[in-house]
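Propose amino acids for all 700 sites.
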């Protein structure tokens, strides 16, 4: 069983998604879980109700909980739905329109009607002051206090709630940004102010300012929510440390999260990737495709050697699916995954060309899919799965939500079947096939971008909807092995309990190796060390073993992108940096460029303290297969019609027991569909393992 590094008490986690709020309570020797509909107007309501119910079930008190970890879509949704605070931008003269210009290029050169996303800050709220630093940090134009008089008046007149300050080259020297903050806050005490030198001290002014603006835009909203949540947790007696799941796969304290809420974007998916990475390490799976499908979206992430792919830049709120450059860029550490609107609540319909389309719009939790009978009248993926026989109406979400098949059929008929003159079941099958193909295509595209052969990977499927679709996805991708973990329906929330306490620091200090200056390098390392000490303090003065990993971003002079290489212990020499870069570059691209000049662009440090470590388990011995508890007619894609499926209770499987598909394995949180091409068994840790039968499955 997994072991916690920092405590042995009861640990609680909560993942607030667009449709469901998942709660997990883990005491080491036992685990409880809850899945409730999210309450969008006040996300903490469902969370607090779930905490109360799960503590009652476990017969524990709030005071017994030693750590609470939380992940939320609040930051992401605020950016996508444009419901953050009224935000202004203060920048260097001449750079007022940097948010509007962006990358300048068009993400789709062939689309003559292309429309770019509007900036978070409209032009009338973007202000400039005369000031200028050189790329070396020298003051070229000093910042004058008198320039702020009209700006302060405009901020007051426009009732601005939050201000982002992003000056040119502030990543080298933050003095002008800090002076501007002090001047403004002295006259506007209630104004929330974010500095680019604090949020993203890196080169590339568009991405740096975009990230700072996003942080300022969501900060009042997120801080207000976290303050309310902290007060409510204290009211119910939960006085343990509260941690937030960050986008890079680590945890950070609540107070730090309030200052840099932009790092909470994609926190739920990051928790899912951590969950899959932990399982991969436990099970010795070296190449894994993490498949997380919930009520609103599906997330796919590649994991190698027990570690998820991590990127430094990603986009939120893309105008075009899979189109790089069509969204809002955020420069910060983030688990690299691809996310599509293909969850259980994704809405299906027919487009102008007579094709079935699914998503990205979702029915969410209010009103939810039509089968919830809560006022929704549009067909969703969940409605389709219900009509195909995959879901038991009385067993959904542990029986807390009774599904109405007639409402699902009425929605599918009215919005899909009648438009295409199809039988409602055939229309439901078409809907499910479309969403499965969307996910398969996303995995193929993401794999091609990363140079990976998808078929060589094992799928780890979790989230309430993923086990329903994982076997079919595996058939489409040519994957031979699927793992449905224990408590798969609340996988991301479990991942929160496996994540390390961590924080990433990046500073840009360009340095050419042919002009290598040891004193300048030492100054950069001293600056990095100062920021590391500050981060340790922000993380609560970590006790015990803290791993600090240092890296640098390097490139050949003239290139537009960098390669990240490890930084040796102590002050590095030019020879060491070149050797490390060439080794990494050759591994990525198969060659190096002899004698070409090199430069370092950014310097990184990552602090991490493990909270969980995998423990070995004895291999499962053979056991007798369980007896089916029922049989159910389920529409099978390979057969093209209804096929009789044996229904098994997951709790009836003993470690080592195995049965052949077609079958359904049911539990409170989800249902695993085992197609005829797979067998399914239970391993010693309680995970379901689907292996492709020797005869192979039906054609995709």
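Proposal:
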């Amino acid at each position: 069983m997994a072991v916690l590094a920092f405590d042995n008490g009861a640990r609680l986690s909560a993942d607030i998604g667009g449709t469901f709020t998942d709660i997990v309570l883990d005491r080491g020797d036992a685990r409880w879980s809850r899945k409730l509909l999210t309450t969008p107007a006040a996300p903490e309501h469902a969370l607090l109700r779930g905490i109360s119910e799960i503590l009652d079930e476990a017969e524990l008190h709030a005071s017994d909980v030693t750590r609470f970890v939380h992940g939320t879509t609040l930051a992401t949704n605020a950016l996508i739905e444009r419901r953050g605070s009224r935000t202004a931008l203060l920048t260097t003269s001449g750079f007022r329109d940097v948010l509007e210009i962006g990358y300048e290029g068009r993400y789709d050169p062939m689309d003559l009607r292309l429309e770019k996303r509007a900036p978070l800050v409209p032009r009338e709220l973007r202000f400039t002051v005369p000031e200028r630093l050189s790329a070396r940090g020298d003051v070229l134009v000093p910042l004058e206090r008198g320039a702020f008089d009209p700006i302060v008046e405009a901020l007051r007149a426009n009732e601005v709630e939050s201000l982002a300050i992003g000056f040119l080259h502030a990543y080298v020297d933050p003095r002008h940004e800090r002076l501007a903050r002090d001047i403004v806050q002295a006259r506007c005490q209630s104004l929330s102010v974010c500095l680019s030198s604090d949020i993203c001290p890196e080169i590339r002014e568009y991405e740096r300012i975009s990230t700072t603006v996003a942080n300022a835009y969501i900060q009042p909203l997120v801080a207000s929510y976290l303050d309310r949540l902290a007060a409510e947790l204290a009211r119910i007696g939960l006085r343990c440390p509260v941690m937030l799941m960050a986008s890079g796969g680590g945890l950070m304290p609540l107070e730090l999260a309030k200052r840099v809420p932009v790092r909470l974007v994609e926190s739920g998916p990051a928790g899912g990737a951590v969950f899959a990475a932990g399982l991969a390490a436990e099970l010795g799976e070296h190449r894994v495709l993490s498949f997380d499908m919930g009520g609103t979206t599906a997330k796919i992430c590649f994991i190698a050697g027990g570690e998820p792919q991590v990127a430094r830049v990603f986009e939120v709120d893309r105008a075009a699916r899979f189109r790089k450059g069509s969204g809002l860029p955020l420069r910060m550490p983030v688990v690299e995954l691809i996310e599509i609107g293909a969850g259980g609540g994704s809405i299906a319909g027919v487009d102008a060309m007579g094709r079935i389309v699914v998503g990205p719009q979702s029915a969410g939790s209010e009103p939810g899919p039509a089968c919830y009978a809560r006022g929704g009248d549009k067909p969703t993926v969940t409605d389709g799965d219900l009509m195909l026989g995959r879901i038991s109406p009385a067993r959904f979400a542990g029986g807390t939500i009774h599904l109405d098949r007639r409402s699902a059929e009425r929605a599918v008929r009215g919005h899909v079947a009648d438009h295409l003159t199809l039988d409602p079941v055939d229309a439901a099958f078409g809907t499910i096939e479309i969403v499965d193909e969307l996910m398969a295509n996303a995995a193929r595209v993401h794999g091609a971008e990363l140079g990976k052969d998808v078929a060589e990977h094992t799928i780890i499927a979790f989230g309430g909807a993923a086990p329903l679709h994982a076997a079919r996805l595996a058939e489409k991708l040519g994957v031979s092995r699927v793992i449905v973990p224990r408590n798969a329906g609340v996988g991301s929330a479990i991942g929160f309990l496996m994540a390390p306490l961590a924080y990433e620091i990046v500073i840009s200090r360009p340095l050419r190796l042919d002009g290598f200056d040891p004193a300048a390098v030492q100054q950069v390392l001293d600056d990095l060390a100062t920021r590391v000490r500050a981060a340790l303090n922000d993380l609560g003065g970590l006790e015990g073993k803290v791993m600090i990993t240092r890296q640098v971003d390097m490139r050949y002079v003239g290139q537009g992108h960098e390669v990240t290489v490890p930084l040796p212990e102590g002050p590095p020499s030019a020879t060491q940096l070149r050797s490390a870069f060439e080794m990494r570059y050759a591994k990525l691209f198969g060659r190096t460029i002899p004698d070409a000049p090199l430069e370092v662009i950014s310097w990184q440090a990552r602090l991490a303290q493990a909270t969980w470590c995998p423990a070995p388990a004895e291999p499962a011995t053979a056991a007798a297969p369980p007896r089916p508890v029922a049989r159910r007619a389920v529409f099978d894609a390979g057969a093209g019609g209804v096929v009789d499926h044996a229904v098994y209770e997951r709790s009836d499987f003993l470690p080592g027991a195995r049965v052949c598909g077609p079958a359904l394995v049911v539990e409170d949180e989800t249902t695993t569909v085992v197609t005829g091409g797979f067998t399914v068994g239970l391993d010693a840790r309680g995970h379901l393992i689907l292996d492709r039968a020797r005869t192979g499955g039906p054609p995709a």
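Residues 1-6, 696-700 have pLDDT under 50 and may be disordered. Residues 202 and 622 are 56 Å apart (CA to CA).
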